[in-house]
Design the sequence.
């Protein structure tokens, strides 16, 4: 096969071929770097560490030559969303405030290569490296993971390989594009309210938001700590399962990481799903769901029935309050987490400030983009004296109702199937001036985040071309009880066998 | 689904919140923020419809209980590494403008 064709293979097969010596890790990495370079206009990567990646790949090949055992991801190129800290390698989280730039630098003048260089690797980065994975670069994203279209990147937007005039979704847009365009067979994203599942749906990739606490967040630039979770994107379900198996597990450096044993997620792929009770929540098929998405998701549900699953109608009555609840809880937490960006210890600094207060306010005013400012302001407002009970405390109570709704549902069903996004990929610029319309793009992914349960997105039949738009991906979202990722992988892999993933035009 | 209705938040409120948030806003940004926050706050008003009597607040997911790590001595960042990204440093520390009025 030609060098590039190896990247049409899934994660697990690439690792097998590298381990067998069929292909070298260096060849795989050069193929990946070549595709990244040729796909530059898609904006998937903020920075590329070509030399470092080839060196790391060569080290894998040398280990093999010495007869040493290679890990589960030997020689597999994996993209990293940019809030994930990489030692000495620029990490911007998509923000100007984490770059060494002039305060008045325009978007075109900003260089992510001049991003903050963390003094340590995130736990997930250490675990990927220990398994033999190699990181070619850092993926584009909405600033501090706040957005649903990747247009809030301080640098440039990422574009959807199915139609570059459309968004790939967000906030992990670059991670999704890198996988959809087969620049890498897998990547890591982070999901606070849908930032893995929604871009997976919009790009036709597999995306997993694990149970809250399944994966260590040590070294992840924090947005909303009670919701943030790292997870994989991959070209297929088994590949996502393998990557999750590598990065999951307790970490003493993250007190919220769970001590639960990490099962063999990959073994769950291919297991029988006959007899599983799958709940179909009426509230996810209500007003606002685009007809082409509904048609594709309903066809997917019919396939689940063909596979022997029992579909049961259920109710998740709180669903319609998800956007309101989330945008209070998440903004409150972000207003606190983002207080650390003050121009003192790293990144941007306002020049000529006469006192500390104006140094903070000047740096933050120049360094944060419009959406981040909006969320810090909203979060500060809902936490401020006189409003705390009415907004923040009430939202936290409603959050309990989300949790209870799911607990009740999972007494009746084993998993829940629903759309991941109410629409197919929308046009760049379409929602950027209407924050509320953008927030509503997350309505189907927010509930699982609020409840802390695992959820994944697997591609179903694309929506056919219509009205001047090409064929575009649609995602099926599967949700399960806490720590039931294996069941979701079983369902998703059975579904995938009946509905094989498609490639965007011109890719592969 | 989106509502165009706005709740009462004045530009003065916005400027007060901006001060609390340590955010310099231009005049145009403050105007835009007044409009946007008004719309978002009007939208989140819908949470008032829900009866939350006796419902406890959920600040985080607690599936297993958070167990703090042992409080043991461990290596910390070397001084020069901690300082290397500082926009301005002086005598082994981060340089900042005066924050105590010495007058």
Sequence:
């Amino acid at each position: 096969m030609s060098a590039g064709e190896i990247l049409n293979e899934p994660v697990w097969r690439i690792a097998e071929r590298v381990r067998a010596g069929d292909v070298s890790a260096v060849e795989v990495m050069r193929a990946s770097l070549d595709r990244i370079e040729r796909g530059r206009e898609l904006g998937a990567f903020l920075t590329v560490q070509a030399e470092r990646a080839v060196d790391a790949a060569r080290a894998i090949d040398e280990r093999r030559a010495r007869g040493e055992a290679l890990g589960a991801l030997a020689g597999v190129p994996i993209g990293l969303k940019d809030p994930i800290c990489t030692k000495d390698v620029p990490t911007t989280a998509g923000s100007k405030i984490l770059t060494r730039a002039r305060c008045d630098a325009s978007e075109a003048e900003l260089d992510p290569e001049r991003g903050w260089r963390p003094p340590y690797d995130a736990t997930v980065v250490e675990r990927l490296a220990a398994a033999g994975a190699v990181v070619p670069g850092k993926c584009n994203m909405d600033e501090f993971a706040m957005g649903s279209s990747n247009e809030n990147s301080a640098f440039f937007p990422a574009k959807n390989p199915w139609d570059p005039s459309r968004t790939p979704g967000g906030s992990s847009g670059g991670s999704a594009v890198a996988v959809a365009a087969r620049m890498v067979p897998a990547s890591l994203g982070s999901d606070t309210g849908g930032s893995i599942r929604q871009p997976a749906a919009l790009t036709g990739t597999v995306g997993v938001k694990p149970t809250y606490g399944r994966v260590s967040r040590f070294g992840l630039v924090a947005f909303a700590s009670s919701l943030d979770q790292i997870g994989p994107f991959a070209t297929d379900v088994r590949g996502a399962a393998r990557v999750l198996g590598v990065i999951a597990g307790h970490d003493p450096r993250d007190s919220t990481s769970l001590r639960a044993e990490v099962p063999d997620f990959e073994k769950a792929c291919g297991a029988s799903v006959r007899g599983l009770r799958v709940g179909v929540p009426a509230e996810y098929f209500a007003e606002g769901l685009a007809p082409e998405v509904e048609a594709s998701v309903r066809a997917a549900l019919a396939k689940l029935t063909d596979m022997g699953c029992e579909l049961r109608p259920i109710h998740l009555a709180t669903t319609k309050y998800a956007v309101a609840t989330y945008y209070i809880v998440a903004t409150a937490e972000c207003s606190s987490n983002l207080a650390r960006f003050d121009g003192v210890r790293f990144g941007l600094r306002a020049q000529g400030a006469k006192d500390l207060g104006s140094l903070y306010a000047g740096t933050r005013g120049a360094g944060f983009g419009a959406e981040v400012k909006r969320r810090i302001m909203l979060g500060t407002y809902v936490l401020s004296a006189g409003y705390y009970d009415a907004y923040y405390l009430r939202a936290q109570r409603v959050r309990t109702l989300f949790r209870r709704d799911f607990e009740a549902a999972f007494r009746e069903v084993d998993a829940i199937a629903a759309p991941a996004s109410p629409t197919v990929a929308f046009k760049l610029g379409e929602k950027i001036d209407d924050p509320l319309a953008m927030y509503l793009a997350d309505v189907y992914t927010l509930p699982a985040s609020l409840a802390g349960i695992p959820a994944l997105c697997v591609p179903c039949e694309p929506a056919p071309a219509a009205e001047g738009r090409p064929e575009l991906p649609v995602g099926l979202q599967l949700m399960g009880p806490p720590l039931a990722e294996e069941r979701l992988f079983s369902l998703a892999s059975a579904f995938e066998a009946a509905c094989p993933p498609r490639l965007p035009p011109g890719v592969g | 689904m989106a509502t165009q209705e706005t709740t009462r938040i004045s530009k003065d409120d916005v400027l007060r919140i901006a001060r609390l948030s340590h955010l310099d806003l231009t005049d145009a940004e403050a105007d835009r923020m007044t409009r946007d926050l008004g719309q978002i706050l009007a939208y989140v008003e819908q949470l008032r419809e829900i009866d939350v009597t006796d419902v406890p607040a959920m600040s985080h997911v607690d599936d297993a209980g958070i167990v703090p790590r042992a409080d043991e001595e461990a290596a910390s960042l070397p001084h020069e590494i901690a300082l290397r990204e500082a926009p301005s440093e002086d005598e082994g520390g981060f340089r900042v403008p005066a924050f105590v009025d010495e007058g």
The radius of gyration of chain B is 23 Å. The first helix of chain B runs from residue 11 to 20. The first strand of chain B starts at residue 89 and ends at 90.
